[in-house]
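Support reply, case 0932

Customer input (verbatim):
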Amino acid sequence: MATVGDVCRHVRSKNAGPYWVTFDLFFDGAENFAKYSQSPALGPDLLHRLFGADPAQVKRFSVPSLNVVKISYARTTPQGGEVERDMHRGQQFVRLLDVQLD
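Our regenerated output:
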């Protein structure tokens, strides 16, 4: 079974303002984008399990012309809070790399 790290040439995470985090999955070609971009494995339940995100607050956008999927979720606490360990969320993508896709 393929993982996100196997089928994406680049994966990044970043702030989408002080209340949102976004992931960009750049698939390594149109074939893998077509095969995996709609995978249920990349759904709201994954973000809830990995990051504690409210599944109702997960948004997912596909950009077929770029072979990209963008997934965003509302932070559980605002950016810069007292318990913040990765203020810009630049390290969060690592948890996605080993996610197995259907």
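We compared this against your earlier run and they match. Two observations from our side: DSSP finds three helices and four strands in the chain. The chain has one domain: 4-96. Please reopen the case if you see a mismatch on your end.
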